[in-house]
């Protein structure tokens, strides 16, 4: 599944969390994630409730920190995150977001990354925003995230450093370092916070993707203004605006250990599928044919990555007109081993199959000292009621206010 953040009124950490909770990530899972960070009871609270922003409904997530501004170095925050019981990928992405913040703060204040004290961005609420957002994206199965241009407004803000102009200097540095597209805001004020900017620049690719829409989630900002102060998260599957291409190249002189890294980088660049085929090349040498299926618009970037990151000297390009696709959807089911993501397969009106996410099964098996097969079977059993649901069942649940994707709405 892919996501697109439509930002008519900018983005902050709590707006990002609002989108994720509205998309179906239970606020209880957000609280469980925060509890792993080892923060003291009474030091924080997280609440979520639907609100109206003008004529539009949105999910308001409120993160409160009792301690106010708490100064921390990047090393302190890294230790907090790495000592929590979180998947390694979550730790790495959360630390990367904070590193962007540290780089920007150091540049703004003429300091170095190791000496920077986090003020607003280092408070408990920002730590919750960042770790929660990274975990929520993973839990919802959002494999690629895109974002619109960010709106920037003028004005002034009072901070620990004194009065500063808007957009905040750290926000501008983060956006400039990523080459992020911007546009004028609908009014004066701070519409993109440093935390929101760092999350966008680390986790998202700017630009609207071709996609088949599945559902829309909305997160509310704190301010009330003459227009709806919301961010909208569009969720769906990757689409394309016409032809597909299949890229192929034969390789017989590259360390096989590198293929996994190359495949991952190609998926990050927009490949729909990547596969390897054993072949026999000239003089009887064993080789591998690397194949990539992708939207035609992604061809230049993918070819460049293949040429840069493999030993090949050339790539064959085959144009394909179309491929038939089953609709896919990711949900989380509860098992005795915790929540496991399930990929559902839809054909027409019917959900005809489910596949537990292997990485989730493996992580749960290691945590509970059991076999991945046992976790897989438990997840599949928990998913059985979903497999036999039809769109008519979903329509009935919508009618009775039980839509899984808009919990709390």
What's the topology here?
Layout: E1 2-6, H1 13-22, H2 27-35, E2 44-53, E3 56-65, H3 74-83, H4 88-109, H5 124-139, E4 144-147, E5 150-152, E6 155-159, E7 162-166, H6 169-178, E8 182-184, H7 194-203, E9 205-206, E10 211-220, E11 230-238, E12 244-251, H8 259-268, E13 273-280, E14 286-295, H9 299-309, E15 316-320, E16 327-335, E17 338-347, E18 350-356, H10 358-368, H11 372-387, H12 391-399
Parallel strand pairs: 1-4, 4-9, 5-8
Antiparallel strand pairs: 1-11, 2-3, 6-7, 10-11, 12-14, 12-15, 13-14, 16-17, 17-18
Short structural summary:
By secondary structure, the protein is α+β, with helices and mostly antiparallel strands. The protein contains twelve helices and 18 strands. It has three domains: 237 residues, no CATH class; 77 residues, Transcriptional regulatory protein pf0864 domain like (Alpha-Beta Plaits, 2-Layer Sandwich), CATH 3.30.70; 80 residues, Ubiquitin-like (UB roll) (Roll).
- Binned, the helix content reads 25-40%
Outline the low-pLDDT stretches.
390-409
Can you count the helices?
12
Biggest sheet: strands side by side, in what order? 9-4-1-11-10
Summarize the helix and strand pattern as letters.
Answer: EHHEEHHHEEEEHEHEEEEHEEHEEEEHHH
Could you tell me the mean pLDDT? 87
Looking at the structure, what is the overall shape?
Answer: globular
Rg from alpha-carbon coordinates: 23 Å
How many DSSP-defined strands? 18
Distance between the termini: 22 Å
